[in-house]
Each structure stands twice: as structure tokens, then as C-alpha cells.
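Exercise: predict the fold of this chain.
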Amino acid sequence: MKVFATFVILILFTMVTQAQTLKAVPYQDGKQQLNGLITANTGNNLPAVLILPAWKGIDNEARQAALNLEKAGYVAFIADIYGEGNIPAGNAEASKISAHYKNDYKAYQHRIELALATLKQQNRDNDKVAVIGYCFGGTGALETARAGFPVAGVVSVHGGLAKDASRENTAINTKILIEHPAEDRSVSKADYDGIIAEMNHANADWQIITYAHCGHTFTNPESPEYNEAMANRAWKHTLLFLAEVLK
């Protein structure tokens, strides 16, 4: 009896594992190869979510978010912003390469646009798309909105909120959710006030939720700043937002 029960458990575990896999999707930016990951549920007429990862590239937080989105009924695609051969080994390299895309925002928007196009090629039966970004990717989520890409909504999770003062405010037609940790030392009061002014100038549909007692990377279980209770709330807020914009 125990052997049979163990056998059943192994079968169930195998079925869950097979259902919860991410498929590699190579795509190109000129000669630069990019390597994204997509959930296994394409072809089922489901809306999709593009995930923009944090400053070290595709990480466990992005992978887990994709699998959780699959469970919630969405196709999820994790973008590769940096490209093959450009994955930073540590914080110093991550700071340098992410700063390049923050400063050259058009290059960042271009890589996001390529990822959106790749996602739509992979998920042709449903054209509804939203974007979620973490940290550096949260900055990318806001750049998606600023670029006017055809997405239903964007979620910036502990993302950078600053924009170069020389850039003009543009029309923003997509809905925006910003999930902001109250004790994020990387975001100044001027940055916070600036994003609100920018959104209001654009007459955007925006919302900021601020999470108490949270440092910058509060949603990442691998971070010393992880706050489980607030991370769970933020995820629920994300799902509520997605259910609205992708309905």
C-alpha cells in the first residue's frame, strides 16, 4: 500500500513538473542573440504577460513569477534585455549594464519592443498583453508606457521612477500600477513626486501602492530585504490589476 501511494505521489509530482516548465525562445536584435523563456500554455487563447527581469537578467524571481502567472491563467514570457554573452556576474557589472539601458532609454525600449513582438508570435491566438517589471525591469515597465507600446497595462515592482529632466512628458494611454516599497533608498522624494507629476501631466490611469517597512527588493525571497507579508499583498494586487486590464 505504501509503495502504491509513493508511486501515485511520484506520478502527480511528474505531472505538475511537466506542466510547470519554461521553454527557451531564442530571438534576435541584429547579430545579438536574445534568449527568453515562455510558459508551456501557449495556444490556449489566453492573455499574456511580458516579464522584464531585474538588473542581473533572468533570475529566479522572474522564473517563479512566470510559473505563478501560468497557474493564474496567463501565458508569460520573460524577456532577455542584455542578450547572450552579456549576463552580469555581480552587482558591479549589473549596475554598469543596466545603467547603459537606463541612460539610453531608446535602446531599452527597443529591446522591450522586440520582446513584445516575440511574445505575440508565440501567442498568436490572443493579442491581449500586459507588462510586469522588477527593479530595473520596473523601470522598463514605465518605459513601455512612455513609448506608447500597445499593451493593456504595466506593473512596476520596486522599479526606478526617475526620468531624465530633459525628456519631455508624452501621452500615456496604458494603465499603470506602481508597487513601491516605503523604505526604498534608491528612489528619492524628487523621483516619487516626479513620477506623479508625469502621470498627471499625461492624464494617465495610474495608481501607486506603497508597502510599509519594506526595502528595495521586498518581493524577492532571495533578498535580505524580503518581506513575505508585503510581497504576498503585492502579488495579489498584481493579479487584481491583470484581471482588470486583460479581461
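Check your answer against the key: The chain has seven helices and eight strands.
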